[in-house]
Amino acid sequence: MCVKRGICPALIASCTQVCTAQYFVWYFGLLPLVLGQVDARRRQVLAAAGGAWLATQLHWLAWAYLLEFQVRSWGRGLENKG
């Protein structure tokens, strides 16, 4: 029941100790509620912060893709020798 309303995903994302990129995507649904109450100057700051966050996520996920799916390794001990 709470999954249909989006309450459970928000609780999981808020209460867990690990925060993945997927949890931030869940919060995007709350942006329309927040942006209506934010002035123009803060919207610019939020847009810049969002752009920086997006760039870092893309950078992180690109390296993760190369490591996991292209089986490239850049350090000792990262590859599975079993």
Main sheet summary: none
Low-confidence stretches: none
Annotation, overall tally of beta strands = 0
Quaternary state of this entry equals single chain
- Mean pLDDT across the residues is 77
Determine the fraction of residues in helical runs and give it as a percent range: 55-70%
Q: Approximately how much beta-strand content do the residues carry?
A: under 5%
* Apparent shape: flat
Instruction: Find the structural class using helix and strand composition.
Output: mainly alpha
Number of helices: 5
How would you describe this protein?
With 82 residues, the chain is mainly α. It has 2 domains: 1-37, no CATH class; 38-74. It has helices at residues 2-5, 7-15, 21-27, 31-35, 40-68. α2 packs across α3 (21-27). 0% of the residues are buried.
Give a nutshell description of this structure:
With 82 residues, this protein is mainly α. It contains five helices and no strands.
Topology:
Layout: H1 2-5, H2 7-15, H3 21-27, H4 31-35, H5 40-68
Helix pairs in contact: 2-3
Any key phrases for this structure?
single chain, 82 residues, mainly alpha, 2 domains, 5 helices
